[in-house]
Amino acid sequence: RALVVSLFFKSYLAISRKLCDAGIMPPDAVPKAELSGADSFHTPVLRSAQLFERVASEQPTQDPIGKPKVHAAALKQATGEAIYTDDIPRMEGELYLGFVLSTKAHARIIKLDASEALALNGVHAFFSANDLTEHENEVGPVFHDEHVFAAGQVHCYGQIVGAIAAENQTLAQRAARLVRVEYEELQPVIVTIEQAIEHQSYYPDYPRYVTKGDVASAFAEADHVYEGSCRMGGQEHFYLETHAAVAMIRDSDELELYCSTQHPSEVQKLVAHVVNLPAHRVVCRAKRLGGGFGGKESRGISVALPVALAAYRLRRPVRCMLDRDEDMLITGTRHPFLFKYKVGFSREGLITACEIECYNNAGWSMDLSFSVLERAMYHFENCYRIPNVRVGGWVCKTNLPSNTAFRGFGGPQGMFAGEHIIRDVARIVGRDVLDVMQLNFYKTGDYTHYNQQLERFPIERCFADCLQQSRYHQKQAEIARFNREHPWRKRGIALVPTKYGISFGVMHLNQGGALINIYGDGSVLLSHGGVEIGQGLNTKMIQCAARALGIPIELIHISETSTDKVPNTSPTAASVGSDLNGMAVLDACEKINKRLAPIKQALPTGTWQEWINKAYFDRVSLSATGFYAIPDIGYHPVTNPNARTYSYYTNGVGVSVVEIDCLTGDHQVLSTDIVMDIGSSINPAIDIGQIEGAF
């Protein structure tokens, strides 16, 4: 009702202004200040500038590190020539897989009847939990608490109940709709975190706590104690390419898959488990992904496993690429979080203690939720030193599709709570939030609540640079003036600092591998364990190899990521793709350099091609593997107290100015300035693209 009145008033103002301009109404019929309510937003002309460190190199032609090199596949992607999973041409005898999805959030399956679907001409098979043993049907990224096909019960709307293999997509989807599923609904249906708390619906072994200092006595001594809460909803990944997989039989007992996944090794492992083959008979390949953002780290199995099973049982190639609505229905989102906190602080706004409860909505299976919660618990203080801390974490079990990894992996949700806390403190002590931030910032040498020392902590410099670059104080004054003059439009400015820990929370994932093959003509084929998701990882790996070998980037090519080139890879996630794989590439290149050293000594004026040719004729191996494991990490308060949790941190500060239309709630971001400290960039063009894309 309020919106209808607002829109009516907005149109009244707009018409009045036209009548005034036309001279039909007197110019002062509507007060000038009120007329701004008639305006609506238009997309401004976009202007942007990117600033980065210029790198001078000793050999200006050869060394590509630190240079803004163009993304290796940029032209192919821009022209549409780049091949994605579903662009692989159809094969002879290929079938398409259509899914039967649950229409209940929590129910027992009474009857599953596919006879009507199987009667259609061109429908070849129907697969369900009955086609697998209980053991084969149980899957999951860490805990095997999920099913390839729902077994007896469904736990969320959109859970895969069965799959139809048919001649084409239209037919498969039509047949899937004909499969009759009868349910007996079960209670309770838990959707929100509040409902989970009410029903005590938590995963086993939760809550977990992290403590530092003495919270109780710090609260007793604090000038102020405030209790509050904040919440953050989910978010759809919306990668441009939905989940896709193509599987084919290579021999009577070999399976090959092309899959849109951030974690080919996991797809390989679980496919082997489902079809009961050893892993060395399953190859998973990923040439490039049309975006992932964490949504393809563990959830790729929803499509890949049924497709692989159908191909293996039917002995024919099988393909599936989800429609957008199916993708959004089947896969989870970013984890919704609820935070309840109690904070103690001085009259000046110096925070002395914080007790915080973190609840995340995991959905119906564990997936990676335990790790997402841990990162949120480790990032809740953001850039602010809090000497006495008690953090509790709960993983809530609900009847939603399993929520999963998503850019930041719990970090943004945790920092969201920290930013709420700092603003509450500033409001209560009546000081500018920027002053309270500076008062509480970590300094170099401080320890976090999980006992990691901050060896270099440049947040103050990022903060000062960003204030200057954004002309913060000047804009603040302009905003105050604008808001006085415009009753129906308001502007605001906000500043947010960040601290993000770099490494996987699970110790064994912090490893990377590479394989380098050099051919007789001097060209180099590079393979590594990371997946090109569009983020430019391959471009960076080519740059690393080019520097290490001292050759132009044009001589190096990366074809795809494949489990038969580099085994047991970690997912391309957690912002460590270029760290792990780049170091592995360097390790492989060093082995090649050692073998070539005597040849280069004998032919000091030779070219790369001549050295490689000589090496071949001298029977010197021109292939090498590389490996890297991040050292000194794996902190555990009892078993490994001296190790670090994170390899290092990246920091940044952002300032945004936004305007809202008070009548309609419409809004527009007017300007944003971001200063990021990411060390010495391997490729500033790609890193800036990543920062802008993330923003």
Describe the structure.
Its cofactor is [2Fe-2S] cluster; FAD; Mo-molybdopterin. GO terms for molecular function: 2 iron, 2 sulfur cluster binding; iron ion binding; molybdopterin cofactor binding; oxidoreductase activity. Residues 79-187 form the Aldehyde oxidase/xanthine dehydrogenase a/b hammerhead domain. This is Xanthine dehydrogenase. With 695 residues, the chain is α+β, with helices and mostly antiparallel strands. Among the domains are: 1-38, no CATH class; 86-187 and 239-331, 2-Layer Sandwich (Aldehyde Oxidoreductase, domain 4); 511-629, Aldehyde Oxidoreductase, domain 4. It has an eight-stranded mixed beta sheet with strand order 3-7-1-14-11-12-13-22, sandwiched between helices. A five-stranded mixed beta sheet has the order 9-17-16-15-10, sandwiched between helices. The radius of gyration is 29 Å and the shape is globular. The two termini are 34 Å apart.
